[in-house]
Amino acid sequence: MIGVRRESGLMKKDGGDGFKSLRGSRIAAAIFVGLLVGCVFAFFYPDGFFVIHHQVATSDSEVVTSSCETSERINILKSEFVSASEKNAELKRQIRGLTEKLRLAEQGKDNAQKEVLVLGEQQKAGPFGTVKASRTNPTVIPDESANPRLAKILEKVAVNRELIVTLANSNVKDALEVWYTNIKKVGISNYLVFALDKEIATLCEANDVPFYRKLETDTSFDSVAKTGGNHAVSGLKFRILREFLQLGYSVLLSDVDIVYLQNPFDYLYRDSDVESMTDGHDNMTAYGFNDVFDEPAMGWARYAHTMRIWVYNSGFFYIRPTLPSIELLDRVANRLARENAWDQAVFNEELFFPSHPGYEGLHASRRTMDYYMFMNSKTLFKTVRKDSNLRKLKPVIIHVNYHPDKLERMKGVVDYYVNGKKDALDSFPDGSE
Ligand SMILES: *[C@@H]1O[C@H](CO)[C@@H](O)[C@H](O)[C@H]1NC(C)=O
C-alpha cells in the first residue's frame, strides 16, 4: 500500500512535466495578445502616459516590444520580452519535433502520423465502425543531457533510433557468448551490451561486441550493479533503460538466455508503448481469456467471469520512448527499490491494473508478441518440438526462460535451428527435474 501511494506521487510529477509545455504555449499566447492590446491602446492615445515605439524584434520572431517613459514600465516590458522570446523558442522546438515526426511517418518507419493526429484538434466521432483510437503515443524530445557518453555510443550503434540492449555481469558470461554469437550470425548490428563489470567489458572488446561500460561516476545508478542481489539488479535494469528512452531511443530489452534466429526488428509492430513476449503457451494464455469462477453457493449467479492473461516476460520487450513508457519504468524501479518483489510481477501489475480508489493506474498501450515467433522454452519443449508442423516453424527468438539448465538448452536450440541437427532437442525433459 505504501509503495502504491508513493507511485501515485511519482506519477503526478511526471504528468506535471507533460502538461508544462501546453501551459507554456498558452502563457506565451496570452503574453503576446496582452502586448498587442497594449500597443493598440497606446497608438490611439499617443498623448497619454506612454510614448510608443513599435518594432519587430528580429527577422525570425514575431514578438513585438514596446517601451515607455517610466523605467519601471521599461523593466517590466523587458522581462516580458525575454519571457516571450523563451516561449517562442519553446514553440519552435515543438514545431521542429512535429516536423521530424512527419518526416519519419513519410518514411514509414514510425507510427508518427498517428502521433500527430493525437496532438491535433478535436474531431467528430465519424460513422459506426470507422472510429479508431490511437495506441501510439508521441515520442519524447531526445534529451542528450541524460547521459552524453551513452548518447555518443547510441548514435553509432542504433539503426532507425532503435537497438537491442542487454545487461550482463560475469555471472552470465557463457550465455552472453551464445547470445551475441547468434545475433551476429543473423546479421543484426544494432545491439549493445550494458557491461556491469570489467570482465564483461573486456570480453565485449575482444569480440567486437558493442558495449557500454558503466562507470562508478555514472549518474543515477548506484553501486547495486556490483554488490546488489538479484532484486537490486532487476531494479537497476529499469533505471538504465530510462536513460535510453530519455535519449530518444526505442529499446528491445533482452535477457542473455535468448537465442536469435531471425532479426526481431523485421517482426515488430511499433504501435504500442510496450510490445512484449509472453509467458503464455497458447492463444488463450498468451492473448487473454474469460476464466469463469464457479461459486455454487450463489445459485443462479454461481458463475463469476474473470479476465486472465499469462504475464508479459520482462526479459524480452520492445519499449518506445514515450511518457507512459518512461512512467512505467519509473514506477517499476521505484517499487523494486522499496519492496522485496519480483520485477516481472511488478512490471505486469503496473502495466495492467486499472485505476481505482486510492490508486492511479498507468495508461500505457500494450501488444503481446506472437508466441510462436517470440517463443518461450515451455512452448518449445512442451509443444513445438513434438508437433511435426510446428517443428518446421522458424521462430525469431527462443527465450530459455522456463528452464534452469539454460546454457545446455540454448546450445540445443542452436543445434536444432541453426545447425540442422534434428534430434538436438530430444534429450531434454519438458520441465526441469
Ligand atoms: C490462434 O489464433 C490464431 C490467430 O491469432 C489463429 O490463426 C489460430 O487458428 C488460433 N489457434 C487455435 C488453436 O485456436
Automatic annotation (TrEMBL):
GO biological process, one term: root hair cell development
Primary residence: Golgi
Positions in coiled-coil regions: 74-115
GO cellular component: Golgi membrane
Signal peptide location: none
Keyword Membrane part of the UniProt annotation: yes
Enzyme superclass (EC): transferase
Protein EC: 2.4.2.-
Localization (cell): Golgi apparatus membrane
Key words, A-Z: Cell wall biogenesis/degradation, Coiled coil, Glycosyltransferase, Golgi apparatus, Membrane, Signal-anchor, Transferase, Transmembrane, Transmembrane helix
Similarity comment text for this entry: Belongs to the glycosyltransferase 77 family.
Name the record gives this protein: Glycosyltransferase
Organism in which the protein naturally occurs: Erythranthe guttata (Yellow monkey flower)
